[in-house]
Amino acid sequence: MAQYKIYGERAHLARHRAALSDILHGCSTEFLKLPEEKRFHRFIPLEPEDFIRPADRSEAYTVIEISMFEGRAPETKKALLQGIMQRVPAELGIPVEDVEITIFETPMANWGIRGKTGDELVLGYRVSGGN
Q1: CA 76: distance to chain centroid?
Q2: If both were cysteines, with which of 8, 40, 64, 125 could 101 make a disulfide (CB 3.0 to 4.6 Å apart)?
Q3: Of all helices (H) and strands (E), which one includes residue 11?
Q4: How much is the CA Rg of the chain, to the nearest whole Å?
Q5: Cβ of 34: how many Cβ atoms within 10 Å?
């Protein structure tokens, strides 16, 4: 499981929503080995006055928060972060300085999904170990 929240200025997110979703999903399937049908993205568009950014960031400043089950190897998480930080600038032209990502990991027992706690779910992919 990985859920994404993407924050940015309304006009910027509107221009890039579909392509950014595709990049994030591609990185999730490649690096986290999530199944193709597992796409959980929440775009949170903000008015410029509600999205205060540092002076050295542009209107393209984009904050990505990833919530996922804990247990993936540090190398897997690092590969995910690097993949996103490489693809967003290359494919969307958003400067890498304008992309910030945070991964939040929680125990599977702390998730409630489809009427079960996460540790009760039968998943079609691995979370711990190499993935």
Answers
A1: 14
A2: 64
A3: helix 10-31
A4: 15
A5: 22
Give the mean pLDDT of 52-67: 96
Q: How far is CA 106 from the centre of its chain?
A: 15
Which amino acid, residue 13?
L
Q: Which residues pair with 99 in a beta bridge?
A: 62
Residues in the chain: 131
Q: How much is the pTM? A: 0.87
- Burial (Cβ within 10 Å: 0-12, 13-18, ≥19) of residue 66: buried
Q: Rounded distance, CA 44 to CA 87, Å?
A: 21
pLDDT exceeds 70 at position 117: yes
Q: What is the mean pLDDT of residues 58-78?
A: 95
Residue 125 has pLDDT above 70, yes or no: no
Split at pLDDT 50, 70, 90, the class of 131 is very low
